[in-house]
Amino acid sequence: MTKLSEMISNDEVHAREMEDPEYRSEWERTTLAAAVALHVLKYREQHELSQTKLGALLGMSQPQVARIERGDHTPTLATLARLCVVLDTEFNIDIRPSGRPAKLTNEKARKNASLTSFAEANADIVLSVA
Fold this sequence. Notes:
Layout: H1 10-17, H2 21-46, H3 51-58, H4 62-70, H5 77-86, E1 91-97, H6 107-111, E2 115-120, E3 123-129
Antiparallel strand pairs: 1-3, 2-3
Helix pairs in contact: 3-4
């Protein structure tokens, strides 16, 4: 049996896995979608909605809601707009050349706990959900 003191954290496992270019590429490809998926799942749980009921509010089918919640594909701007209106939330997306500090990101977005960031094609991408 492994002792608790010998176990490694999720962060340590993730850091090791990020050294693998294939893992890193897939993680970066799905990070934005996963952040949105988590927010939608939390909303649905807090409001005790089924995927079908949330879909009706969003004007989407249940399979469309399921695809968003799986986090496999980055949602379009139109889908994010629909989610922000129905879920009464804000998605702040900041995309800038790698290494350049944010200029336009608002204070609320910077302080938000649901901040996700990653690099893609020499650009830094930051998503905050409020």
